């Protein structure tokens, strides 16, 4: 049995997808509930078993498609089984971690499916990390083995001096040692003796999230969570075996790597994996692969809307766009220009214990919890102190719920669905797990998950995202930790102190990084830019610099950055010298009033 097949429209199912229009939100909710209600019936049925079942029913139909390689359902099941047997052969025990450093491609999904089904844990490492940041991700996973594609092997080698332990490295691609090892195993279904006693409660993956402070944390993702994500999104997107979803998001993230592919695989559909987003290639790809759904983040939609018209942008069979972060100011223009019948905006956090879905397609809202599910997944918004980020409490010591329209932090009650709550599986670090739990919220002894997100709820019950709480902001679809950025900046020669914060940029989603830095005469901007390139992924580089004489702090030595954020990067307000990062040259140039005018007029591209 081969493990690859050709791409192209000849492989497209002959049946028509779900017709456009006539969408029923109630039916979508009920289908999602039906699909996810089956998960607890058999605690040993993992997502790999879902793939196996489809391989038996429709083995020759495409599961994962890309320009690099394509797997039918049979090929995907066989490839995953080879990875499973390889993991067993190297002595990986239940709970041991293998780091996976690989760009978006079908073999990525096969790898984590196979390795996790025999009890090992797969840490999905951001391929854009370098140096200490890359080492940190590997260290917190406490990995015994690392799988890395050949083109990223040099980046891993540069991070080696910062690793806490010597893990065995396996090179993937171009006849690397992993490729050779995998050929020794067959892809037949695993025997009972090979399966091990793995249940849906066991940890399957580690996915990294910044949270609100500090370096990235490794969130624990169980097999149950993978199945739930697949089932919920298969139901709410009305996915069928005739759907083909375009996924150009990073596969080391929960949406691009788990939600998008698993929703289609759950329903027997197909996933087109693009290695990266390209505005110029987007519509040609949608047409070439005959996609019916695509997964977005808000910034992606803004890029497409600002791109020159394409003759293919309305010549497609898309019936749905699903994603998060689509701002209300471009929602309707985006949907109208590209003739997309339905938008499914949602809100979820990788480690979060509740999600919101805007099934009705209300522009600007991130979703709501329908009455039939309110008792199973209770969520609330509580008042917080904007400076300390701590929840405000009343005279009784309990938290204060926000009224409709009032801004506060969104929280979700911790528990099981039967108990009236959602599971919080935490991180590899127990202390970090505890920091995300808010106790004695509305009653003595209760516990709620802190999202770190400021929201408000309108009169109809829809939630609207406002901003992040604390020191993390989103830029280019990534959570940026100001602590990690500060650490990198302070390690540069000539920098005495630094504080980082997010500032709004007209025409851009999220917040751009801005750093106020104090320097001495040894500081050089070119050296500074080169230093950051070795320490931080591109999205984490501060776009704006404020050259300050000193930084203000509280009596407890916490940096005061709220006024800095309010000042922004306007030279008419800020008297300190300002610089902006040139995206083409990769260095910093002075920011004067003329350049500021170009930025605010959206004529300067980041």
Search tags:
606 residues, alpha/beta, Rossmann fold, Luciferase, domain 3, GMP Synthetase, Chain A, domain 3, 3 domains, eight-stranded mixed sheet, six-stranded mixed sheet, 18 helices, 30% helix, 21% strand, globular, disordered N terminus
Strand order of the largest sheet: 2-1-10-9-11-12-13-14
Please, how many domains? Answer: 3
Give the class from helix and strand content and strand pairing.
alpha/beta
Helix content: 25-40%
> Roughly how many Å is the radius of gyration?
24 Å
Q: What's the mean pLDDT score? A: 90
Gross geometry: globular
Say which CATH homologous superfamily of the largest domain is assigned.
ANL, N-terminal domain
CATH class of the largest domain: Alpha Beta
CATH topology of the largest domain: Rossmann fold
Point out poorly predicted stretches: 1-22
């Amino acid at each position: 049995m081969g493990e690859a097949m050709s791409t192209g429209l000849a492989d497209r199912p002959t049946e028509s997808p779900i017709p456009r229009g006539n969408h029923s939100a109630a039916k979508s909710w009920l289908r999602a509930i039906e699909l996810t209600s089956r998960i607890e019936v058999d605690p040993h049925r993992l997502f790999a078993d879902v793939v196996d079942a489809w391989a038996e029913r429709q083995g020759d139909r495409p599961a994962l498609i890309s320009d690099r390689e394509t797997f039918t359902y049979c090929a995907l099941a066989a490839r995953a089984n080879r990875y499973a047997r390889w993991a067993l052969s190297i002595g990986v025990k239940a709970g041991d971690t293998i780091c996976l450093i690989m760009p978006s491609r079908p073999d990525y999904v096969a790898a984590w499916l196979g390795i996790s089904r025999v009890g090992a844990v797969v840490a999905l490492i951001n391929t854009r990390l370098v140096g200490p940041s890359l080492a940190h991700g590997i260290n917190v996973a406490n990995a015994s083995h690392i799988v890395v594609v050949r083109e990223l092997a040099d980046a891993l080698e540069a991070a080696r001096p910062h690793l806490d332990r010597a893990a065995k490295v396996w090179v993937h691609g171009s006849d690397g040692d992993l490729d050779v090892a995998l050929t020794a195993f067959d892809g037949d279904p695993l025997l009972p003796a090979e399966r091990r006693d793995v249940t849906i409660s066991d940890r399957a993956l580690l996915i990294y999230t910044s949270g609100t402070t500090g370096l990235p944390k490794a969130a624990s993702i169980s097999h149950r969570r993978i199945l739930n994500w697949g089932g919920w999104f298969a139901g709410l997107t009305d996915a069928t075996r005739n759907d083909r979803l375009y996924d150009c998001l990073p596969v080391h993230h929960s949406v691009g790597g788990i939600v998008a592919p698993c929703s289609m695989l759950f329903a027997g559909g197909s996933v087109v994996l693009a290695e990266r987003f390209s505005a110029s290639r987007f519509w040609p790809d949608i047409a070439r692969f005959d996609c019916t759904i695509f997964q977005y983040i808000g910034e992606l939609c803004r890029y497409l809307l600002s791109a020159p018209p394409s003759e293919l942008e309305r010549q497609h069979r898309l019936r749905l766009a699903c994603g998060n972060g689509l701002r209300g100011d471009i929602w309707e223009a985006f949907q109208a220009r590209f003739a997309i019948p339905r938008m499914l905006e949602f809100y979820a956090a990788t480690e979060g214990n509740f999600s919101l879905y805007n099934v009705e397609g209300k522009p600007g809202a991130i979703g709501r919890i329908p009455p039939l599910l309110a008792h199973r997944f209770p969520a609330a918004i509580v008042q917080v102190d904007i400076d300390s980020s701590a929840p405000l409490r009343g005279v009784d010591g309990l938290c204060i719920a926000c009224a409709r329209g009032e801004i506060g932090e969104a929280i979700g009650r911790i528990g099981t669905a039967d108990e009236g709550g959602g599971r919080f599986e935490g991180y590899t670090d127990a202390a970090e797990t505890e920091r995300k739990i808010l106790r004695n919220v509305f009653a003595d002894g209760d516990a709620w998950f802190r999202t770190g997100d400021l929201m408000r709820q309108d009169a109809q019950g829809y939630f609207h995202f406002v901003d992040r709480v604390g020191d993390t902001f989103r830029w280019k679809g990534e959570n940026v930790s100001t602590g990690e950025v500060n650490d990198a900046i302070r390690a540069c020669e000539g920098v005495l102190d630094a504080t980082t914060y997010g500032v709004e940029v007209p025409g851009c989603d999220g917040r751009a990084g801005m750093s106020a830095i104090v320097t001495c005469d040894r500081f050089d901007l070119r050296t500074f830019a080169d230093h950051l390139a070795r320490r931080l992924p591109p999205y984490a580089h501060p776009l704006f610099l404020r050259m300050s004489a000193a930084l203000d702090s509280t009596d407890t030595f916490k940096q005061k950055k709220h006024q800095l954020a309010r000042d922004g990067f306007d030279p008419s307000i800020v008297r300190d010298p300002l610089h902006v990062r040139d995206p083409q040259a990769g260095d910093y140039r002075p920011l004067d009033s003329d350049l500021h005018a170009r930025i605010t007029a959206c004529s300067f591209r980041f």
